[in-house]
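Preliminary data (for renewal application), magnesium ion complex.
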Amino acid sequence: MIEYLELKNFRNHNHTKIHFQKENTFIEGLNGTGKTSIIEAINYVSTLKSFKTSDDNALLQHKKPYFRIVLTTDQDKYEIVYNEGKKHLKINKKVYQKMSDFIANFKTIIFSPEDLNIVNGPPGVRRNFLDMTMVQIDKPYLNNLSIYKKVLKERNALLKNLKASSDMTFLKIINKRLENEADKIIEKREEFIKKLNKAFKSRFKSFNKNDDVELVYEPNVQAKTLESVLNGRIKADLLLETTSAGPHRDELLLVYNKQLAKEYASQGQIRLITLSLKLALLELYENKEEIVILLDDVLSELDEVTINELSKILKLKNQIIITGTNNKYKEMKVLNLDKKENQ
Ligand SMILES: Nc1ncnc2c1ncn2[C@@H]1O[C@H](COP(=O)(O)OP(=O)(O)OP(=O)(O)O)[C@@H](O)[C@H]1O
Ligand SMILES: [Mg+2]
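Predicted structure:
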């Protein structure tokens, strides 16, 4: 569990220090007091990425040259300093040069209002969700992904340089290489989604017994077919200067009572679907009790019944940190940012 968090020059947190207690924490405060930023910083220690922006400079407090996050769990101490575009990383005072070695040592599951885009947004959001969670659970997957992306980039660069009359030998070699890498990704995604789907369905049932949800993986191409698909599309790909098939075009459908959730489910239902999906991830981790659950602004739009149901998850062994403008749970320790206590 997290015992201590210190933020320096991180968004509106000039210098915030928080000691967490054994009980779960409800971070309360008016709009703009920095609740989400705390969740963002904790999650950053896990992924080295903000869930709100891909630009680390946006996290820097205005005109400050660096930000610093220190997070101490009951086992380890994590330190991140971001300065002049570079991340300086330490675990237990040991310097980590590679981000990939640092990522996912400290693990979180996060739910935030942005996550509603997993249901509502375009396929890229769902692929990103899939990839970001898979790398936390299956470390080698990060390597699979980066090799695939590298070969894909090479292929796209080549497409820009070739003409219809050029020799296609090298392109065909790349098509084969891309298939090899694609197959690893498709296979891993298939396996992961199968497990996640099972946990997702049962987690959703725990909130709502009357309705059904399902995750459906729709790979853009089946395994062992990408080479021949790409060989058949050379003309079109040359014209568009991009690779029109492969796992970078995969889709993951969220289905609610046999209909597409995006088009059919209500706002509150979409919130519950997304929350169930996130909580289901817990079942896929080893040592799942160590995972910190971060729920940013989870209560808005949920009805009383669901809020009461949600209180059951507070009985999980995991540390849970919830933000909101108004605490609904008496069993939680309240940290009020308006009063600047604890800081
Ligand atoms: N880089 C930055 N430097 C300084 N302040 C920032 C920076 N980025 C955002 N802010 C401000 O920091 C505050 C933090 O917002 P945050 O999203 O954490 O608030 P919140 O408590 O979650 O509010 P809400 O209840 O509306 O969700 C906002 O007032 C925002 O304008
Ligand atoms: Mg917020």
